[in-house]
Amino acid sequence: MILRKRVVLQDMEGVDADFHRNLTWMLENDITDVMFLNFTTEDERFGETTVVELKPGGKDIDVTNENKKEYVELITEWRIQKRVEEQFSAFVSGFHELIPPELVNVFDERELELLIGGIADIDVEDWKKHTDYRGYTESDEVITNFWKCIRSWDAEQKSRLLQFATGTSRIPVNGFKDLQGSDGPRRFTIEKSGEITQLPKSHTCFNRLDLPPYKDYSVLTSKLTWAVEETMGFGQE
Description:
four-stranded mixed sheet, 8 strands, alpha/beta, 237 residues, globular, transferase, two-stranded antiparallel ribbon
C-alpha cells in the first residue's frame, strides 16, 4: 500500500487466514445455490454496524458464479485497504514527509520491507531448534540438506527466506521460540508438499514452508534460491 500497489487475494492470507480460505474456496467451486451474497459488506465502527456497498447499487446485485471474481477483488480491497483509507492516507502523508515517494518507488514490497525491518543476524541453530515438521522428520535427507543450505547463505539470503516464509524479516526479541503468526504464536514449520519439479511455497500466516522432497542438495539449493529471490511465494510455482 505504501507503494500504491493494488492489494490482491494473496495479501488476505496474512490478514485473515479464515476469510482468505473462504474466498479461495469460492473461486475454486461452483457457488450456485450454495452461497447467497450480494455486493455489500458490514462494517462495525464504535459499536455501530453499517452496510457498505462494494460497488454502486451493490445491495441489488447478487454474487453469482459469473461475477464472483469481481466480488472477491472488491471485498479484498475493502477489507485490507478501503476500510482504513483515511487513516492510511494520514500515515503515508507523514511517511513521505520523511522519505519522498521517488526514493521508495524504486523498490518492490519485499525489498522495502527488508529496508524497514533490516537484515537480521539470524541464529540458524535457534531457528532449527524451534522448527516443526509435517511429513518429514529432522533426520530426513531433504531436511538435512535444507539446513545445510541455510547455513551456507549470507545474512541477506537468510533474511529473505525468513521473509518469504513468515512475511517479515524481523526476528522476535527472544528468538524463534516467540515467532508469531496471524492468529498468535506459530512455530516455523516445514511441510512435505508438492512435486520435485515445483518450487517451495509459503504460507506466511502460518509461518509454514511447503517443501517438495528434492532428491539431492543441488536441486534443493537451486529451487529454494529461485523461490526466495525470484518469486513472491504464496502458492506460486
